[in-house]
């Protein structure tokens, strides 16, 4: 078996792990929903004697249990229990990540260059970075509730890449033989990873916002696990912090791309289709940052901008690469 | 109202919530109306809408080919959509990024930007010189707040050490005496955040100005050179020349460039990429009027910077050398003709025009197959881009080339409207087929044509077993170069770095106010309060206040 075959095998194993992690994360969400139902029933039972607020921090025989608490918004929040299935999901994600890392590194070694020179490889490295960013952020902020989303997204992207974009190892054409390939594409992928996380948080923010506006009755809630997640306002702050990191990386991508274009094509900017879309994405996220500081645009409206921004990123990676004519014809397909 | 409520310059104003941002002024008058429009234009909301509009307006330019980046695409678009194209043309869809509507959006945006940055800069300077504000009476109301009670000492010494600590941590400080006998230090830090923001926005303006005006001081030009040929850096010697508005072609640096050799390396180990070029190296000799010469190399991604001109290698291909003789055998035409590559194996298409010397004008459309392979249909294809088995096929036309009126015609196109086909196609006569070094009669005894072997030592076509013949170098290559100068790139880069630097500071430097207040209690203990207020996004505020309390405690010798 040569290195590239090892890479492919390793990738499919990684996908299997992500698949299992996805299921485990989904089970965790289901369990959260069940907890919310339980908490709601209990709250209803004690409502006559106790204000719901007083149930906060309740501990039975040293074991943490689901508790119901009030937050700034009117909608009630439920504290999630520690759950073994979540730990399993996380372990599977880490395992998948390691296999994914092996797949990426062996691909690079087999090709004798950085593993991001065609669409298959962009996808390989880009999704690796999504998981890496997610895991690193997890060390500081508990975003485990995003697990289903992140593993699902990465699984879908990898599936498409492995089936539709796969190409054998090719040497770098002269146009790509540049140190700027290493910098520009890597930073773009890293930026995309942060945008992906920000996108997930913004989507949740919108859903959570709807729930919070929708009122207090937990029993009527359709996506019950929402009651265990941070408030919309908190999600918005998390999304913002993630997106501005993405934005800075994207700004750098834009500048590095212009420097490379100057070296390679003799002009730093020429409104090539890929350049146009990189610019559009940059402007959308600049709009998003502004929206967060504009009265009347905070909250849901700015979240929509973040979502549109990420959709543009995905569009830029897929449709623009494959179907738009331009100088950046490096899909390898 | 250019900034939202949680910013310095918005703090002092009454916060009129609701529609209209509080700008409800009946009876504006002329100046009032102007001021109203100006205020609207420089509002945060307008800036946001213009930004979003800019993003939307940039989209069509990626859907429709643009003259600036893809002129041939535009021509093709007109051919394919004869009805739609003129309509799109009338709304400048083929020049989106220079169009009136796109320009108005970004110009408005930048006017808004300038109108926004100037007052903020003024404000910022004032803020940097003013004293940190009075300590609020009830610190426990603030988002980040913590307090301790000290067993000994007094408020004065506690505040002295707090003052020193905050100063050391880079805060600007001010001491205040409270009404209830308390003493406090008010501190503020993070002015750099606003500075970064202003640098960022100003650098955007700088970038636009440099790109907009600066582009006029340079030029961009193209030139195709065949191996062995020399190009002189003058207006006339370029294939195309686009000067900027303020560029004077007399300023072209006097030098000449000879293309000595164009080397290509093809992939031969990796069967998936067999024949893919992996290196282009162009060896040139540069010559100055003084007679000095210098050997240089131009490669993709590695332009040659010479005498203020930047020379880029953009394309390459074969330029077969062809000689045409009249029936008497004297040469009427000879040249190396660049053929345009049509595929990865360099099947190349070229046009030969012979205006004088023969009975009638002759035009030929030729295909060069560097490694020819005859398919079952009888047609040739090329199976490898290097010269393993080169074959040139030519269809000959006679008649009027349509170039007598002196109007420039593309050298890569042959207009056969006024010509008759003599060979190939439906003429009933076989196309001319030549290998390097071979000659053949033109149809109807009009003369002969020779496909010259420019490297005759390498192999002889007379060999019976042609596959063993080495045709390496038998056909010259050409390289196409872009030559540019743009004296403003340095400035563009400077502004780009300022943009990035400003962005980093403005997004990651926290701007916060903190207060430390000490009150002597009746029982001899001292109550010390710590509180913080964020200005803008500041996720670390709570931690920072706690850390401050901890360090202050340590400084006071608190046992833990
Ligand atoms: C060319 C158009 C513009 C672009 C690309 C742009 C981009 C940005 C970006 C990326 C930020 C976040 C980074 C920072 O704070 O420095 C920002 C912040 C800001 N911009 Fe702009 N901007 C533009 C025009 C404007 C205009 C016209 C105004 C005034 C009306 C404005 C006012 C602000 C303000 C107040 C902030 C601070 C917001 C915050 O700190 O959250 N910008 N802008």
TrEMBL record, chain B:
Location in the cell: Membrane
Tell me which Pfam families the record gives: ResB
- Please, one GO biological process term? cytochrome complex assembly
Q: Which GO terms describe its cellular component?
A: membrane
The record's InterPro entries line, in alphabetical order, gives: Cyt_c_bgen_Ccs1/CcsB/ResB, ResB-like_domain
| Record key words, sorted | Cytochrome c-type biogenesis, Membrane, Transmembrane, Transmembrane helix
Q: Where is this region: Disordered?
A: 1-20
Transmembrane region positions? 46-64, 96-118, 198-221, 489-509
Topology in the membrane?
Multi-pass membrane protein
Q: Work out whether the entry's keyword set contains Transcription.
A: no
Name under which the protein is recorded: Cytochrome c biogenesis protein ResB
Write down the species.
Mycetocola manganoxydans
